[in-house]
Amino acid sequence: MLRRNLRHARRYPAMTISLVSMPIAMLLLFNYVFGGTMSAGMGGQGSGDYIKYLVPGILLMAVGSGVLPTTVGVCTDMTEGIVTRFRTMPINGSSILTGRAVGAVIQTLLSIVLVMGVAFLAGFRSGAEPVEWLAAAGLLALMCTALTWLAVALGQLVKAPEAASSVALPFSFLLPFLSSAFVPLDSMPDWLRHFAEWQPYTAFIETLRGLLLGDEIGRYGPLAVGWGVLIAVGGFVWARSLFRRDATR
């Protein structure tokens, strides 16, 4: 099942390209177009200061972008009948979902590497030690796993690929903007700041920012790990439940 999904990604690269193109476009846009103004508003000296603040949020946007192709892919499999055919074969039913999830995590992690490479070319420099880089990689892997299993569940919940893309939009685009990805929390109005402070994306971003820049993480570290484990386990259980329920119909 993993090999099948990786072959699909190679034969139909449009979704894979979207994983990389949107985060890179946002990185270049905010750094080169808005970077000077944003940095001045945050007390920096130029876009070179702002890119240090920007990159962790862009990396999380790259993780969130993986929700869209995974949701659409799972929905397509469920609605076009291939999963029904798989269920008639002597294979473990859970491998259908697991193969999709593992394949999506691999693609998303590769896209993060590409985005990180563009960030370095754009002037990002990290003050992290090797152990902090390792912790950052582990956090990104946890985020990928968590959001991928959530996407697998959402793909089974909707009944059309068009609806699947709409359902995935908040995770790939909306929530990153309603977080500390692009501006500090204290620059937001109170009603929005309270939401942004406690939603999962802000905890992930602030933890990742602290690790990549060699700064303090504070309470966001345990909060990010807790959110990641909760979403991963919840998404996995939800996906398995929907898959079994569909098999009994």
TrEMBL record:
The keyword GTP-binding does not apply. Pfam families: ABC2_membrane. It comes from the Bacteria. It is found in: Cell membrane; Membrane. InterPro entries: ABC2_TM, ABC2_TM_bact-type, ABC_2_transport, Nod_factor_ABC_transporter. The chain crosses the membrane at residues 12-34, 54-76, 97-121, 133-155, 167-185, 220-239. Keywords: Antibiotic resistance, Cell membrane, Membrane, Transmembrane, Transmembrane helix, Transport. Belongs to the ABC-2 integral membrane protein family. This is Transport permease protein. Residues 14-246 form the ABC transmembrane type-2 domain. It is a multi-pass membrane protein.
